């Protein structure tokens, strides 16, 4: 990932210049001057210095709105994409909807369940997969040129349906879709009430490589693989991302349908109908929706429950109390 301002024409080359962009991705402080004498407002790209003030301003705004640190944004941009300016956004005339969520929050179940109403939610802003594929297949090298090929790739049957974590919001700003067309979107905010179970689900999936029940596990796990630190780290990450989502929604006053996973699984059909209506569907057009059966199944096992009990016990011990949780 490179950070430059394409509109800035003043640049020059120096032999042996270092890669400041790499430093930026690691979150290191930029020097007051580069080896070629450029001021700190310049970003070194190989042996080329270009002014990076637009990028710096943009990232500042993103930190204010989404709450993401600069290194996280830079590190997750797909190569060979170069940030120059915001794009023109997407065209009108189709339904735009998003599921804002964190990993292992139940978003896969919700996504396939919404297929009953013609939605095809995908992780189109996944930098390691679908978004990277758009960048590479379309030969996109500048963020200002990304909006149109992304729109063509991510629009299915007159709908753009994106499942995304907070980082995805940044890319929609980069492509110029936000804030220009923000009022055209409808958002579902999905979260789990039991963050410990969510974190354990993530820990198990990472170790086994089995993210859905139809995937084959790459390895087996046992109680010996339990790690308090790993579960706590995943839990804290999910909690932080939830705060980012809530901040984004609250600051901009977005139209949002809130879904608690534990409530959704006990009343799927009613919640799905409400979400579809919220997104703009005429429920009369989907008479068979009530008979739809998602292929996703629950993956939790007795091991998950044992780890949950053990984590809560360990947590109380570390907090220095003998109390118990009912």
What is this structure's SSE topology?
Elements: E1 2-3, H1 20-25, E2 42-45, E3 48-51, H2 53-65, H3 70-75, E4 82-83, E5 95-100, H4 107-113, H5 130-137, H6 147-154, E6 155-156, E7 159-164, H7 166-174, E8 185-191, H8 195-208, H9 228-252, E9 256-260, H10 261-264, H11 268-279, H12 302-318
Parallel strand pairs: 1-4, 5-7, 5-8, 8-9
Antiparallel strand pairs: 2-3, 6-7
Helix pairs in contact: 8-9, 8-12
Description:
The chain has 326 residues and is of the alpha/beta class. Helix content is 40%, strand content 12%. It contains twelve helices and nine strands. It has a five-stranded mixed beta sheet with strand order 6-7-5-8-9, sandwiched between helices. The chain has a two-stranded parallel sheet with strand order 1-4. Strands 2-3 form a two-stranded antiparallel sheet. Helix 8 packs across helix 9 and helix 8 packs across helix 12.
List keywords for this structure.
two-stranded parallel ribbon, single chain, about 325 residues, alpha/beta, 5-stranded mixed β-sheet, 9 strands, disordered N terminus
Structural class: alpha/beta
Helix content: 25-40%
Radius of gyration: 22 Å
Helix and strand sequence: EHEEHHEEHHHEEHEHHEHHH
Continuous helix count: 12
Name the average pLDDT.
78
Distance between the termini: 49 Å
Low-confidence stretches: 1-52
Strand order, main sheet: write it out. Answer: 6-7-5-8-9
Number of strands: 9
Shape: globular
Oligomerization status of the protein chains: single chain
Strand content: 5-15%
Largest sheet: 5 strands, mixed
């Amino acid at each position: 990932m490179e950070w430059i301002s394409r509109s800035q024409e003043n640049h020059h080359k120096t032999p042996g210049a270092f890669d400041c962009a790499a430093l930026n991705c690691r979150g290191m402080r930029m020097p007051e001057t580069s080896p070629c004498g450029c001021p700190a407002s310049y970003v070194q790209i190989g042996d080329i210095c270009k002014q990076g003030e637009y990028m710096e301003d943009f990232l500042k705004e993103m930190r204010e709105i989404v709450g993401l640190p600069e290194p996280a944004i830079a590190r997750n941009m797909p190569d060979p994409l170069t940030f120059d300016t915001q794009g023109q956004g997407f065209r009108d005339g189709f339904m735009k909807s998003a599921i804002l969520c964190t990993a292992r929050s139940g978003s896969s179940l919700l996504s396939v369940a919404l297929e009953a109403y013609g939605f095809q939610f995908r992780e189109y802003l996944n930098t390691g997969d679908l978004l990277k594929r758009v960048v590479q297949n379309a030969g996109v090298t500048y963020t200002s040129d990304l909006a149109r090929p992304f729109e063509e790739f991510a629009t299915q049957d007159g709908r753009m349906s994106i499942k995304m974590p907070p980082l995805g919001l940044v890319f929609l700003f980069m492509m110029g879709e936000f804030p220009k067309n923000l009022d055209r979107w409808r958002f579902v905010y999905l979260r789990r009430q039991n963050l410990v179970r969510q974190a354990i689900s993530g820990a198990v999936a990472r170790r086994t490589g089995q993210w859905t029940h139809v995937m084959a596990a790459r390895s087996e796990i046992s109680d010996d693989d339990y790690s308090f630190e790993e579960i706590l780290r995943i839990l804290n990450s999910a909690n932080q991302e939830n705060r980012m989502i809530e901040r984004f929604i609250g600051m901009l006053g977005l139209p949002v349908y809130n879904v608690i996973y534990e409530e959704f699984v006990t009343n799927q059909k009613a919640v799905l109908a409400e979400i579809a209506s919220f997104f703009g569907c005429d429920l009369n057009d989907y008479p068979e929706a009530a008979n739809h059966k998602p292929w996703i199944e629950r993956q939790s096992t007795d091991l998950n429950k044992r780890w949950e009990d053990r984590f809560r016990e360990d947590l109380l011990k570390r907090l220095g109390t003998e109390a118990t949780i009912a």
